[in-house]
Write a structure and sequence with these properties.
homodimer, 479 residues, alpha/beta, Aspartate Aminotransferase, domain 1, Aspartate Aminotransferase, domain 2, 3 domains, 13% strand
Chain lengths: 479, 479
Amino acid sequence: MHIQLDGHGPLHAQLTRALKSAMFAGRVHSGERLPPTRLLARELGMSRNTVLAAYEQLRAEGFVDGRVGSGSYVTPPLQISRPATPCEASEPAQSAYARRMRAFHDNARLANAMDVQIRHRFQYGMPLTNPALTNLWARELSRAALYTKPSYPPVQGLPALREAVCDYLARRRGVEAMPEDVLIVAGTQQAIALTTRILLDAGDHVAIEDPQYFATRRVLQIHGATLCAVPVDGDGLVVDALPVRAPRLVCVTPSHQFPSGAVMSLSRRRALLDYAERQGCWVFEDDYDGEFRYDSKPLAALRSLDEARRVIYVGSFSKVLFPALRMGYLIMPPGLRNDFIAAKWAEDFGSPAIEQAALANFIGNGGFERHLRRSTKTLAERRAVLMQGLESCSRGRLDIADSRAGMHVAVWLREKSRAEGDALIAHAQALGLGLHSIAPSYLAPPDRAGLLMGFAAMSPSEIQQGIEVFARCLDHCYA
Amino acid sequence: MHIQLDGHGPLHAQLTRALKSAMFAGRVHSGERLPPTRLLARELGMSRNTVLAAYEQLRAEGFVDGRVGSGSYVTPPLQISRPATPCEASEPAQSAYARRMRAFHDNARLANAMDVQIRHRFQYGMPLTNPALTNLWARELSRAALYTKPSYPPVQGLPALREAVCDYLARRRGVEAMPEDVLIVAGTQQAIALTTRILLDAGDHVAIEDPQYFATRRVLQIHGATLCAVPVDGDGLVVDALPVRAPRLVCVTPSHQFPSGAVMSLSRRRALLDYAERQGCWVFEDDYDGEFRYDSKPLAALRSLDEARRVIYVGSFSKVLFPALRMGYLIMPPGLRNDFIAAKWAEDFGSPAIEQAALANFIGNGGFERHLRRSTKTLAERRAVLMQGLESCSRGRLDIADSRAGMHVAVWLREKSRAEGDALIAHAQALGLGLHSIAPSYLAPPDRAGLLMGFAAMSPSEIQQGIEVFARCLDHCYA
């Protein structure tokens, strides 16, 4: 019997998988007897216990019948259709939405292929790994699982979590909201997706910052919005550059502009809200990493200045806890509350209850803010190492954006074109260092070499090692 | 100091909430000293420890500063805007989608108001409560939390879960799929939502069963689909009644028609697939409770007979585990794979990773199928009690749909109009019994009195008590 192990995980699991493959591939047929465990163990050079464990697993899963001693027989499958023929040919796009997805969306990104040659990567969006959080979260989840109702959770989110979010926002972000204003969502991505559906028809105009967070732009494009890119300077979105013909929606990241790092000034904040009120348009305020600040108090959120009730305020737990959680919240303007809740219902009936309950408890018992303080300290150290490294290798060649918050830094290479920047990135990659161009964050990328350098997922020594390689690449680029 | 407790939960938590309310309402100002614990304890008739616990909590959350002994002072808030004025006036609908939501969607349903007067309710969609599952799941979650990567999970779902789903489907449902065909989604609701976006433009035609699952119908209506209701008989969807002008999509529940209970015959299955192939339309196969069958082997799923690759097969873990989980899977036809994955990305980047890992393990270690066997046994008992009760109180007045699967039964009242059925439901409600009309499950409800009776969430004795009240209501109705 030909058995091909795949080398992943414990031997008995490998053997179980290999035997299943043999069944699926038709190399072992239903009713056939599997080789005696002693024989197979000898043949494969495994201990008999390993083979027994694999057979036991197959039996537990219903793939084989019989008992030790009398032989294991492959059970007849319910009905197995022929194996899927590998057919990668796509149908033509079936809807305007699908057509836009194909036009705007780079499916290769979804495959998320990681180049194993890369030793260090300054990648944005990789989380700070925190073993203490892992243990705390395991405990919270297990407790929440014991006390959470098994029925459908409220569409809007568990009341306990919505209350905890309100307490937290009042204390830390100056946002006063009531639990009935809060919608629990599957992260910022779902927040913008729901917003597009309830506010925008295909073709409607939306103003976005340029540069901007690429995923928000993609969702808007896929929805069919007509985008108007508005420049950003050191004070954030240039409100005077907003179009005279009002868009339906303006998307901003005022607390820490993504990716430039600018903090929107108070006067710009007021000007933007005036514009929104005058024009009757909506403002999507993405407060994606406002918690992580290193030397400044945050300014009041747009939502806290919003007397006309035009602001949709969005916060994410993915950035401050871990992305695998897929949870965030949206503070709804009163006039759109029913639409948002109905749209959430129409998408998924509401977010998973146990993780909501765990999070409510974690916020309520103070664990969440202890975690934030710890993370901010760790991130501040990493940021300091990166900034120091960049300054020491700059020698007048780099413009480092003065970002005092978040998990990344924007770095420009003086007097270098975008193509020269791409060459530097390719060179770094050949040396095992992952660098990322800032160009994809622009609707209209400037012809300058710029990098978006994330530092959350690297230890100080990894950052230092990365910087050493980066310095060599810089020298090569400016040689 | 005026303190108003709300009576929910432990005293110290009530006091904490009451003190926060006082701060938000401006009855206690920033910088002000809270009453000494001894004094407040005496005033409220609480133990001093209770007051200490509340103060400690407020301190942990940053609402007060200071230490025991030197007094607790209310900290200045970051910036508190004026309390939200209660403003329930909705904006006009902002998009065609929002307009359709308002037209089709009953927002009152979302409030999910429960009448506390009702003692027993034969409600569909309430889960079987299973303390053993609760403990197992708490353990799986906590283990998964320790071993799951904190970064963004793959959009399509964790490979381990997709593999486990394939194993399970091959063994139990006769569906052979490869892990690359599987998309992990937030339940059946998200499966239909993604399907509408990638397949349908507003106005496109969709054939649905009549009766049908109301949530699927609503999602289609909200998306703007033009619905064509096709009748159902004892063999499931009447394929010959499908429109001559092909719809883009046909939505069916072949393994256990919702809510009639019919099982689609094999010849109808083949006829439907022929129709789909001939017309080039898609089939959405919702296998929502196919696991719970009491006296029959399931027929092969449409997906397992689908040579033309037109079937989108959907399964839910909400029904077989618990709805609060919000997880399901979709088997994608190869030609739509990239579109489905991109649409999932555009909605939420992928489902939460820890619950996926826990589920993969729960399926892999056999716990899931042990749970299914246990649940099926419990449900079979409950169903038997219900059927017996219905038969004994029928006295020729009831037509009980012969449903040998699932968690509900359709019951028709002979020679009674819909209005008479509604009167019976109102009468039952007055006697503390919750009954549910089958009419909302129809696009074109017949003028007959029919009930949709769920039995999963009631114990046998609760079912018996419910039946006693039901018998009295029947007597009243036929008096």
